[in-house]
Write a structure and sequence with these properties.
The complex is a heterodimer. Chain A is about 35% helix and about 15% strand. Chain A contains 8 helices and 14 strands. In chain A, strand 10 (about 280) and strand 11 form a beta hairpin. In chain A, helix 2 (about 25-55) packs antiparallel against helix 3. By secondary structure, chain B is mainly α. The chains are: A alpha+beta, B mainly alpha. Chains A and B meet through helix 3, strand 3 and helix 7 of A and helix 5, helix 7, helix 8, strand 4 and helix 10 of B. The structure holds protoporphyrin IX containing FE and FE2/S2 (inorganic) cluster. Protoporphyrin IX containing FE binds next to helix 3, helix 4, helix 5, helix 6 and helix 9 of chain B.
Chain lengths: ~325, ~525
């Protein structure tokens, strides 16, 4: 595959050039001293490390240009370790470069391929072995072995079954029921519409019974964001408008894209922004996606007030919250 | 014989009589290793891995891999009294109460970052120099495996502390699993022991992070190094370097001293970075809860490109027959990475198929001499870099006063347009570099000295280059494209005619080159 034309000749490995330390005993002594100094620096690093570990106080903060104010113990422990390691390396390499033989040597390669003879032997041995086992003739054994080997993989798979429960309808449900009070997060206080000024945002969770426990997996589906606008700012149909209360609108805070908390509200544009992949939802139009990779609006929670004037859910979410999954009916 | 020699001798004798190691040692202590800075990249990866093993083991002594809820009462006042997982609380304990604990966390994390950088740059070196060619394809595949596992291992690692940032990363991983058609929600519920986040995930990934994957790493790295040992290292072209030999320094003592010393240097540099540049300050993020998030969420860099792809994905979902398919997650999160990694793993075989070259290669290519491969690499790299940049789109936007929209459209268009441009530009660049080589060999080096000719014009003096240099610039083979016949001897169409035609075309593209200088060319010049 090489070209037809005659190539330029290979001049061969260039002649070896001696280093100073190879020729001059003084240079050699000097190199030796340099190596020793590098190793000694490493020892100093270890001493710094031990000193910092035992004697520098945890609460000492010092100012260092570039670094700013840093914790002294942390800094000097690290520097001590760094020096102790680095200078061992530097010493060893300096030693190798200046004092160890630096003459290049040439070794020959051999092709990876085995000798033809060996290959033939191998094929013969393999054939003999196969003939002895008579696999070719005993097809009953071969098939049944194949079957059991195929099946044996099922056992470890089955063993993994108890890793977790089946999803069932779990992804569709949240703790919101009709009449569930909205309580602040954190704080667990019920809220009235008057607690929320126009333009304000609040994170809420469904109220739980006294002494009850809220698992993180509940928060992961229940977290809701309240936003108060002037009612005339909404561009909603009658049904959606009926889900708001005096300009307060409630959305699931769990992003419909991949489930991050949709935490950023821009008051001027009335946009909700998810910091994970910047999906942007328009609050005035029922959290319609106006930018980013999310494909569905944030589910809206219908709210109203109870007899005491506290905000409650009218009814559960009418669609699953959070990211999509195969069984989700999104039509 | 000195006393020391006697003792060494009898120990050696003792061991050899039981193992027969002397013959093997004799041969291998003289093993020749070629020297080049780019051969250190794999070493950096190896050493970082050893540092990860050491620092990680230290962390396991205090880290409590549990999502049990605890009330924090440690030294770090701002979080006092807060509910959090035991995992997070123990990470705070390592950071604030275990002396040197924070340093070890920093070393572990910095080593992980460096590990991934070293693997990626090592891979690029292997790619652009063609070191993956026969007989080294297996090692290429192992390398791609190590890269993939490294990404997973790193992700699991920074998920362990269970802070607000890492919990968000797990949330996203869960959403990717959940998006799998048919089986998604089942696998997600099995992996998390129920609904996200549950209490099972951190203990489970802990076992994977400290036992399962490190075990696989060790096995793969061992095979990787054994193959390097057995197949001998490749070498860069140069005088005296042939496909049949290897020129370098013997293992003992030079190479051993250098490699051993280099381990300490890598460790020292990582310790230095850990001392002065604090990363992942988990105490600032707070404990994970699904209802909160920290703005500007960023994964580690080796995950950034994936995040960038997810961010730029168009909002596509299919809703039909009561089911949902999230293309906006599946394409950037699984399909594209799947294609990228499969393509990467198969590249040696694809190239060999295109060029029809079935011989062993031990002399590395200079990237310019294989323009098509180099250009393809530049194209893939450009794709990944655009994705990576988009992974930090919010940060770039705020830094450069752009809007997120501008960044997003730049990336969406850029990821389609820039890679092909990179291909064309790189290919041309390679060819002009080849031309420059040709000129250099033919006309020598420009000296910068001008002489005035008798007729008044100025001419620059060219100095001929050394025989060694001339060899280095001309030793490569001129590729010859395949010419597979589309018809057989009787003029009938062959069965694989279309395939052959395609292969011929690709092979032609692969073989584009500037003719190199031959001995005859040089002679001719000398006559003038
Ligand atoms: C290729 C190998 C590895 C990589 C890429 C890796 C990566 C990481 C990363 C990025 C973290 C987060 C560190 C932080 O900022 O807190 C981490 C945490 C951790 N890793 Fe590893 N690791 C590796 C191997 C190991 C091994 C072998 C062990 C133990 C034998 C280990 C034990 C731990 C522990 C206990 C933590 C949690 C403690 C903490 O974050 O402070 N790792 N790992
Ligand atoms: S999770 Fe909200 S945009 Fe991706």
């Amino acid at each position: 595959m090489s070209s037809e034309l005659e190539a330029i000749k290979d001049p061969g490995v260039p002649a070896h050039v001696h280093r100073q330390a190879d020729l001059d005993p003084k240079a050699e002594k000097k190199a030796e001293r340099q190596v020793a100094i590098l190793f000694a620096l490493s020892a100093l690093g270890t001493i710094l490390f031990i000193y910092s570990y035992i004697w520098i106080s945890e609460d000492l903060f010092i100012y260092f240009p570039v670094l700013g104010t840093t914790n002294a113990k942390q800094l000097f422990l690290g520097l001590g370790l760094a020096f102790s390691l680095f200078f061992i390396g530097a010493g060893a390499i300096h030693w190798a470069k200046t004092l160890m033989p630096d003459e290049e040597v040439i070794a020959m390669r051999h092709e990876m391929r085995s000798e033809d003879e060996d290959r033939r032997e191998l094929v013969k041995t393999a054939k003999q072995g196969a003939a002895a086992a008579a696999l070719g003739r005993r097809s009953l054994i071969k098939r049944s072995l194949g079957l059991s080997l195929g099946l044996i993989g099922l056992s470890p798979l089955l063993l993994l079954r108890d890793l977790g429960p089946l999803p069932g309808k779990d992804l569709e449900k949240t703790s919101w029921k009709s009449g569930t009070r909205l309580v602040t997060d954190p704080g667990d206080r019920p809220i009235k519409p008057s607690d929320l000024e126009v333009g304000a945002v609040a994170q809420v969770l469904p109220a739980i019974a006294e002494g009850g426990h809220r698992a993180l997996s509940d928060i992961g589906k229940d977290a809701v964001l309240l936003i108060r606008l002037r009612p005339e700012e909404f561009q909603l149909d009658a049904e959606r408008l009926g889900m708001t209360y005096q300009g307060i609108i409630a959305f699931s805070k769990i992003c419909s894209h991949m489930g991050c908390a949709v935490a950023l509200y821009e008051q001027q544009t009335k946009h909700l922004l998810c910091p994970c992949h910047q999906s942007t939802f328009d609050v005035t139009r029922a959290a319609k996606v106006i930018f980013g990779p999310a494909a569905r609006p944030l589910p809206q929670l219908a709210i109203t007030v109870d007899s005491e004037g506290y905000l409650i859910a009218q009814k559960p979410f009418s669609e699953p919250v959070g990211p999509s999954y195969w069984e989700r009916n999104s039509q | 014989m000195t006393a020391r020699e006697r003792i060494t001798g009898s120990v050696a004798n003792y061991v050899d009589e039981r193992t027969g190691a002397a013959a093997w040692m004799k041969k291998n202590l003289n093993k020749v290793f070629p020297d080049h800075w780019s051969f250190l990249l794999g070493e950096i990866a190896l050493y970082s891995f050893i540092i990860l093993l050491l620092s990680g083991t230290f962390l396991t002594f205090w880290f409590d891999p549990s999502q049990r809820e605890v009330i924090y009462d440690g030294d770090y006042q701002p979080l006092s009294g807060l509910k959090m997982s035991a995992a997070y609380a123990s990470t705070l304990h390592i950071s604030f109460e275990v002396r040197g604990g924070l340093l070890m966390r920093q070393i572990h994390h910095w080593a992980a970052l460096l590990f991934m950088v070293a693997i990626v740059v090592h891979l690029l070196r292997v790619y652009f120099t063609g070191a993956f060619r026969k007989p080294r394809e297996f090692n290429w595949i192992i390398g791609v495996g190590l890269l993939t596992l490294g990404i997973v291992e790193g992700f699991l690692g920074y998920s362990l502390p269970d802070d607000l940032l890492s919990g968000t990363g797990i949330r996203i991983a869960e959403a990717i699993i959940q998006a799998l058609p048919v089986v998604g929600s089942y696998i997600a519920f099995f992996a998390f022991g129920g609904a996200f986040p549950g209490e099972a995930f951190i203990p489970r990934i802990f076992t994977v992070h400290v036992l399962l994957l490190p075990g696989i790493f060790l096995a793969l790295i061992t095979v990787h190094l054994m193959l390097v040992w057995y197949q001998k290292h490749t070498q860069y072209p140069g005088p005296g370097r042939t496909e049949k030999n290897v020129v370098g320094y013997p293992l003992f003592p030079v190479y051993m001293a250098k490699a051993g010393g280099f381990f300490f240097i890598v460790f020292g540099v990582i310790a230095f970075l850990s001392a002065v540049a604090s990363i992942n300050p988990i105490w600032l993020y707070g404990p994970y809860t699904p209802g909160q998030i920290s703005a500007g969420s960023q994964p580690d860099w080796y995950m950034g490109w994936l995040d960038g792809l997810v961010r730029m994905a168009p909002p596509l979902e299919t809703h039909a027959f009561g089911h949902t398919i999230s293309w906006n997650i599946l394409i950037p999160g699984l399909i594209l990475p799947g294609i990228m990694f499969t393509g990467l793993a198969l590249y040696p075989f694809i190239e060999a198929w295109i060029s029809g070259d079935k011989r062993e290669h031990h002399i590395l290519d200079r990237p310019r001499n294989v323009p098509n491969r180099t250009a393809l690499g530049a194209m893939a790299l450009t794709f990944t870099i655009v994705a990576l940049l988009n992974g930090g789109n919010d940060i770039i936007a705020t830094t450069f006063n752009l809007t997120i929209n501008q960044m997003m459209w730049f990336s969406r268009i850029g990821i389609l347009v820039l890679p092909p441009i990179a291909f064309v530009v790189t290919k041309r660049l390679c060819l002009s570099l080849q031309r420059a080589d040709r000129d250099l060999v033919l006309h020598g080096r420009e000296t910068g000295t001008l002489v005035r000719m008798p007729r008044g014009e100025f001419v620059e003096i060219h100095e001929p280059i050394s025989a060694q240099k001339a060899w280095t610039l001309t030793q490569h083979e001129q590729p010859v494209p395949l010419e597979l016949p589309a018809t057989d001897a009787r003029g009938l169409k062959r069965p694989g005619a279309i395939k052959n035609k395609l292969r011929n075309r690709m092979s032609r593209a692969h073989a584009v080159a500037v003719p190199k200088v031959s001995a005859a060319d040089l002679k001719e010049i000398e006559h003038h």
